[in-house]
Amino acid sequence: MPQVGLDPSGDEDPDVGTKAAVLALTERLTGVRLTEELLTTAEYHVGAVPEEPVRHTEHRPPSTGSVTRP
């Protein structure tokens, strides 16, 4: 982490761009060069995890619908 400008203790250096440092760390860990083209043309899959458990009162089968992007 220090090699890319991040402090493991969490202290931020005002001279280091945190986003750039995180991308540099990602490149070092994965070996994949993160270019603007790669980031803009990539397909992203995301999900949300609620902070509190969701309580279901009835059983519902899983959704089979798909989500499309505009």
How would you summarize this macromolecular structure in one to three sentences?
The protein has 70 residues and is mostly helical. It is built from two helices and no strands. 27% of the residues lie in helices and 0% in strands.
Can you offer a commentary on this structure?
The chain contains 2 helices and no strands. It has 70 residues and is mostly helical. It has helices at 18-30, 36-41. The two termini are 38 Å apart.
Query: Gyration radius, to the nearest Å?
Result: 19 Å
Termini gap:
38 Å
Gross morphology: elongated
Helix content: 25-40%
Number of strands: 0
Quick one: biggest sheet?
none
State the secondary-structure class.
Answer: mainly alpha
Q: Count up the helices.
A: 2
Stretches where pLDDT is under 50 for at least 5 consecutive residues are none
In terms of quaternary structure, the protein is: single chain
Mean pLDDT level: 76
Q: What labels describe this entry?
A:
elongated; 70 residues; single chain; mainly alpha
How do the strands and helices of this protein lay out in sequence?
Elements: H1 18-30, H2 36-41
